[in-house]
Here is the input.
Amino acid sequence: MLPHFPQPGIQYPHKKRDYFIAVFTFFCVVICLLSDSHATIEKQNALGVCGWVFLIGLLLGETLETRVQVGVAVIFATLGEHFASPYMGGYIYRFHNVPAYVPPGHGMVYLTAVALARSGFFQIYAREIAKFVVTVCGLWSLWGISGILDQGDAVGAMLFCVFLIYLFKGRSPMVYLAAFFITTWLELIGTSVGTWRWVSIDPVLGWSQGNPPSGVAAWYCLVDAVALGGAPLVMQAAGQFNYWFLLGLRTTKAKINAYQGIGTD
Here is the structure.
């Protein structure tokens, strides 16, 4: 029933690099969001520079495919941020902008989800982690629509259902599981310190929305899914472009040599 989950009973290897990426990103999230909670726009831009430096450094030890995935994630997430925040107003940053650290931050968040997903711990305890995530997020969603809170969270409950589809129907459930931890971490910290806030009524659906919504990880899973599915297409297109570019160079060189009377090899 869980065809895309790791096989149970196998001792998957633990790699220090995977855990380092995760710990480093979780730590950077805290420092960055706490710093931005009272920072000027200049300091916010400086955080963006640091984010790019950290992301590039982490990618040096990754495969080409993972680097392309991160690139796709950064582009798609940045476009989504500009659409969802400044344009639609679903959530609002302190300066009503998209902070400079957000694009590289999305890259680090995606890379962390990939690193945790392939780690020995997540591979060995995949089903236990899935039960924990579904239980915690499910109770959080029920709390949001229970009527106990002044600000309801119908959007969060809907997003939780979407997250379940990603988790049990998607081809990369471990990435989505890992995304829940890092994205919930950053959302709870970011909203609690006032770096951004989600509006109480979703501007598209008109439903109540928590700050943050309980199923907010589903939005990040969308980024992950686009990165995982889009990277092969980008690599294929790049390969075809490289082929035709080199073919064009050879043809041009042959014509030049023929014109000069040199001949071809």
Observations:
- The beta strands are 91-93, 196-198.
